[in-house]
Design a protein that fits this description.
72% helix, mainly alpha, 290 residues
Length: 290
Amino acid sequence: MLLTIILAASSFPVGAAITNDLPPTIMMFIRFLLATILFAPYVFIKNGLSIPSLNKLFVYILISLPLVVFFWAMFESLRYTSVLNTGALYTLVPAITAVYTLFINKEITSKFRSFGLFVGTLGALWIVFRGDYEALLSLKLNYGDYIFILGCLSIGFYNPLIKKFYSGEPMEIMTFWVLFFGAIWLLIASSGTILDINWFGIKANVYGGIFYLALFSTLITFFLLQMSVVIIGATNVAAYSFLTPIFVIIFSISFGMDKFEVVTLPGIFLVILAMLIILKEPKIEVPKAI
């Protein structure tokens, strides 16, 4: 999960660098299509040329929808807001996931974990509003922030849906078909403009950025994420999201896209504390039946 978050965080500055060169739906379509093509040989050589049942295909279609909405929202929002804001708002996902998990997986969030979610959300808000409580009270979010919050509300469904519908199939099969149907959704969404693009006029760094996102921030990240959800659970996986703004800050400063502000330090401390609280939740011993 630590590797997953590092790779996911790197997608924010990379996405911000290329988001104005192509419409978000088309950029995401290429990203998902490339990831699907790159992953196909491994999946089919290992598991053979077989198509899942209609029920499983429907599940994969359902799971792909939150991803499509989230990544569209990320690229669209980066046109109007900062990399740091999106990275910080992403830490709202654990709290959102906990609510969805209650209804989808019937998993009740303990008071200990709820406190951790509250601390993490507080830290995220601190980073977004730079410690300015007046801005928080007046809710001075920009258009890009609202778009990205919509994406966060969508991606919150992802982990609980995996936990609910995973039935023991090889993880690479689930990853492949989720990516495949994600590409189909994005092709449909971009069908009205895809033929109007001057593909030869697109700069090489844009294609390079999309390839990076397809391989590292899509293919590898999805595979690791889905494996982690099955092993440690949806809420624990989501807890690692609290580290996202820290790595986003590191990447954006390294790329010269943002400047570090000391005022964000308390928020950074709170999100790290929140992750540790959730991951260190005391285990409840269930008495064995006699």
